[in-house]
Amino acid sequence: MTITRPGDADPVRDAILAAMERLLAGTPLRSTGRLSVSQLATEAGVKRWHLTHQHLDLKERFQARVKAQDSTPEAFSKKLSDYEALKKKYDELRQHSADLEERLRVYAAAVNLLALENAALSGREPDAHVIPLPRAQGTLGPHERYNR
């Protein structure tokens, strides 16, 4: 640990103070913008232990200013709103996918039923019994249309 005398410049301390101002102003350069000690260290480009062991006064000052400010910086609130929008879109896409899967099940059942009916009508399935639907007066059946 380096001992600094009054009047000596401490680059770590200066970096932390500059990062504190950027975070509180909502203009982060290196971090997510979240107002936490970890993000302050990231923003300052220093190890977290500098704040938790070496510069406790800066850590406490930052936490006090965050508490007094009691708001989320613009940069971070924008990321939160983007996250919420993406979460909503994800939920919509999951619902759409579930709807398509249900529609696919219905179509598969219909195709299967039509295949069975086709096999029964074409005589390939001797034990199958298909009951023809009643036709309206004056309409032709499928075999009558093509055999004319």
How would you explain this protein's 3D organization?
The chain is mainly α. Helices cover 66% and strands 0% of the residues. It contains six helices and no strands. The chain has helices at 11-25, 37-44, 48-54, 56-69, 74-121, 142-146. The longest helix has 48 residues, at 74-121. It is rod-shaped. The mean pLDDT is 81.
The average pLDDT value, as a whole number, equals 81
Order of helices and strands: HHHHHH
SSE-based structural type: mainly alpha
Gyration radius, in Å:
36 Å
Please summarize the sheet with the most strands.
none
Roughly how much helix do the residues carry, as a percent range? Answer: 55-70%
Layout of helices and strands:
Blueprint: H1 11-25, H2 37-44, H3 48-54, H4 56-69, H5 74-121, H6 142-146
Helix pairs in contact: 1-2, 1-4, 2-3, 3-4
Q: What are the salient characteristics of this protein?
A:
mainly alpha, 66% helix, 148 residues, 6 helices
Task: Provide a quick synopsis of the model.
This protein has six helices and no strands. The protein is an all-alpha fold and 148 residues long.
